[in-house]
Fold these 2 entries.
Entry 1:
Amino acid sequence: MSEQSEVTCPFCGSTETELFSLFGQQLLTVQYYCRSCRTPFERVKDDTVLDEYVARKEEEQ
Ligand SMILES: [Zn+2]
């Protein structure tokens, strides 16, 4: 298991979040989805996000 950074939901504080889309409404944001309160939210895209996305893709194969 690769260690992934935890993204905290800004609404309920849960870390039960998942990367939903690499493309948010703005160029430098990505969309996350909170499994706890079922709310999508955006986060500024950074290297951590991209690493997490790549790791997820590798797991799917
Ligand atoms: Zn939440």
Note: The helical segments are 47-60.
Entry 2:
Amino acid sequence: MTTCPLCDGSLRPAYRNPHATFADREERLHLVVEACADCGFLFQTSALDPEYRRIMRAGYETYYGHDIFDFPRRDAENLKARDMILRHLPARPMPSLLEIGSNKGDLLYLLKEARPDCNVLGVDPGQADDRGVPTVRDHFDPERFASRFDVVVLKHILEHFTAPRAFLAGVKQVLADDGFLYVDVPNLEWILRDATEGFVLHHVGYYDAHTLALALEGFEAVDMEQEASLRAVFRKTRAPHRPGARGASEALGLCARLERNREQALRQVEDMVRRGGRIVYFGVYTIFRLLHRELRRRMPSAVCLFHDDNFAGEREPVFGLERCGDFREDDVVILCSNNSQTLDAMERGLAGKGLFLVRPWRPLNPATPSPDTP
Ligand SMILES: [Zn+2]
């Protein structure tokens, strides 16, 4: 029987999507998230399926196929991560910093720009073009590093591991005794509170401040920012570790609400499409690709378009959908983000146009009451 990867407690079903899709692959899987009855950790047990592992392994090899961002990517997420890390980077000359899962090296580039004397190194299995950021192109193996680092960075990495305790033990091994660990994960508290499309196949562990502290045995948090991402800096400690038990009842209720909202919203979209409405995806990044693969299955005859002020092409590159020039009154506009701050901004920008806006997962139609909002 599968137990909680953080505390070995027992798991109970919390959320499921029988036809979940990957952003960049055609395969579908039954996504199952379970909650630990003891510590409240939410964990995607469907990620333990051998089929899941096979698909993900293939996915990492083609990770850069849909990359449309400039290098280095100076988006708010990277800049906030950079600034928080800089606050804790030792002032002494030539500190060393390792980023595990460094992708193309955007964050390392930005850090080096701000602290040229910092020795940065990345580890990432993806085969990206050389951008001048020193990177070990392989999976992380603590045995490969002879010296230890002043800072280790895990930016949107921890949520992908099925065995986080073993991975974090390896991280601890390469971190200096007075070193700092920067961790950045999707914030479960925000996913549940704002009912956003947060449970996705490519994320295995869903952390909040409580379960992150539980996972980081031998560390104490010294800095934390809570937004759609949970950003925190930890330092090694010898103090005894045992965050209290919490249970799963609150999380189970919020997961059930999210599942209900999702199904109701999708049914409303189906209804609008049946009456001739077009689907317009607002924003063409990861969540768009996930949603379009799913909606294409549910509503194969729907006319689908996209709109994105930050993307110049007349057709988006993955499915070849055409740009929506002018919105029509019966268009169903799906706001493609799982960041509630981004969703708020999208919603403000489209307010007052009389459009049927769908915020995953909360339909917003002036003519239809919203189902079950907080
Ligand atoms: Zn647990």
Note: Residues 56 and 156 are 16 Å apart (CA to CA).
